[in-house]
């Protein structure tokens, strides 16, 4: 029995129903999507067979990536320690934390989004366990070193292509109720949206100045197994992705191909834990060039006027992922010391926004003196 079949058999009825519902939605969109793909390729002087090559590359080699911040508190531990000790990646309904919107209440925003997205598959009244709900990531189609959705974490797990078989996808974040949805074997709706963006805006998933022909070449050439970086240059991409919803467990020893970490963690306790994760569960841990930005270079007009003062509170020199994480731990351990800036939730949100600033404007660690 293949790994993909074995994992599929392990899905619960709710999880299988969620995938089936998205696949049906994608099938409903297929005819229009195929027409759009054909039209754009024709207008762009691209051979029609290119679409088949890209479909095959995505189907066989596309990796789902799970971004996370390794040093964020979760209960009495930090995320990296929890991964090392538990050997599984958990969703926000289990952990109570998120790198996006934290919403774990029934009838809350995330619960409502999932009810709409999966046509009620997780809301059939059979007593759903929190662990059954999907885990969120992004499909990595461009292979930048900072990952396909760096706003959601400075480190990321690269999942094996087999996990894509039990994942569903949306063009953009699911909180926006996106029209274009798919599975790895029904991907035309999302591919048509990717192509239309490159045709009308010269843009694709954070890559600028790219037309449909080069876009299709990039997609085909980027998708390899084992995964390789296409370039050493970070994407600085905050807002453009193919969101992935992984159904079923994410077991580190079975499902992870590699762990990519921000270079600021290479030395220190967090780096040692990350390396131990790879050693325990049998995959490589690689450190990218990361991001850093001098405190005086933090802009006041991207994520709000409070960002420069927050940066100065976090560090006296340069902001990086490690400095922001240290601040988040300090906030968790001693909220009174931060009370002048607002509530715990407000300051935690500010720290998330400071990370966005770093992703947008940060320079690689190795290039700053």
Automatic annotation (TrEMBL):
InterPro entries recorded: DUF3626
Pfam families hit by this protein: DUF3626
Name listed for the protein in its UniProt record: DUF3626 domain-containing protein
Originating organism: Purpureocillium lilacinum
